[in-house]
Specification:
This protein is an alpha+beta fold. The protein contains one helix and two strands.
């Protein structure tokens, strides 16, 4: 498992960005809505996230925490 430290370092440089994922392009499930990556049925849902480079979320129009409604991805 020589790749584990590299993956951990990459994860540290990433963050969850809510409200920017198009339908079917989310990176994880949402409690009480769907259970898996790619299952979102709504564009820019404030409950779905994509993993992006740390520090880039808000410039993309997203938020760092889940929210009600939809985002305004740029």
């Amino acid at each position: 498992m020589a790749f584990a430290p590299a993956m951990a370092a990459e994860g540290a440089a990433m963050e969850k960005c809510y409200g920017i994922a198009k339908a079917g392009e989310n990176d994880c499930g949402v409690k009480d809505q769907h259970s898996c990556k790619g299952h979102s049925k709504a564009n820019m849902s404030g409950q779905d996230f994509k993993v992006v480079a740390k520090g880039s979320c808000e410039t993309m129009g997203g938020k760092l925490a889940p929210f009600e409604g939809t985002g305004t991805a740029k």
